[in-house]
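Subject: for your reference before the review

Hello V.,

The reviewers asked for a structural picture of the protein, and I figured it would be easier to keep everything in one thread rather than splitting it across files. Below is the amino acid sequence we used in the manuscript, unchanged from the supplementary table.
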Amino acid sequence: MFLQHVADGLLSGAVIGLGAIGLSFTMKILRFANFSHSELLTWGAYFGLIFFTIAASLGNVFDAPIGPLSFGWGMFVALIFSAVATSALALLLHKLVFEKLNRVAGHMTMVFASFGVALLLRHMVLLIFGPNPIYYSNELQFAVLLPGNVRVLPDQVFLLGLTIIVVFGLHLFMTRSRTGIAMRGVSENPDLSRVAGVNVSSIINWVWIIGASLASVAGVLYGLTVQLRPELGFGLILPLFAAAILGGAGSLYGAVIGGLIVGLSENLSVMIIPTTYKPAVPFLLILAILYFRPEGLFGERK
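And here is what came back from the structure prediction:
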């Protein structure tokens, strides 16, 4: 039973970690808590559904399941186009709302504006797609039995593997590319980076693109292993913030490790407390982090 909860915690933590990376970058580089970020997971999941349905309608390899998985190559097409569509949505919100407010308003105004944007995005999903849960596929799957009597679905194994690949690819981008290095510089000192010739506006656009792309991937993976519903992002908002704060704002690995810790804490807590109290665990983690180490595990002390 314990090992099963650990496995479930790692799988849910992988999704939380992916979503928390973009939120962590936003908090560090854009310097405000973007509560609408969680709704990008919802939109990414529904964008994925649209493109997955289009790809599956083409038949052949796009529709036929890959081995024990519940989906075909159409899911990979959906992941790519969903990331593009969600990035476009995030850039649109930045241009229409956050960029303009950042010039004339303070950070608290930005935070309250993100609340309003989150409500707007959530109700737009509800209006367009309706309140009923939707599944990517109705294909039946048989659980894989691992050592320790741990059972996981093939789709969950795919989720964990893809998360590792995405995080490793982002690590290479942040450490080897000029844009990634510039992002790290802007996160530390925007004014000095601007003096050094860095196009800060372009870097901010890249923050939105990367954050939205990872949010869309996390949303699709979460919807793939659970189900799609308009409250998907709202239910993940506290775990996302807990992971970002725990890891330290702007830390790639901090967000991932924070997500894994949050996922493990939530799933292991049900061994002690009733399941109905499980959503309170991320909130307790946030309080503990802010009290004992406000800068997070990988954050720098001021």
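For the response letter, the relevant points are probably these. Strands lie at 144-146, 150-152. The longest helix spans residues 74-104.

Happy to draft the paragraph if you're swamped.

O.
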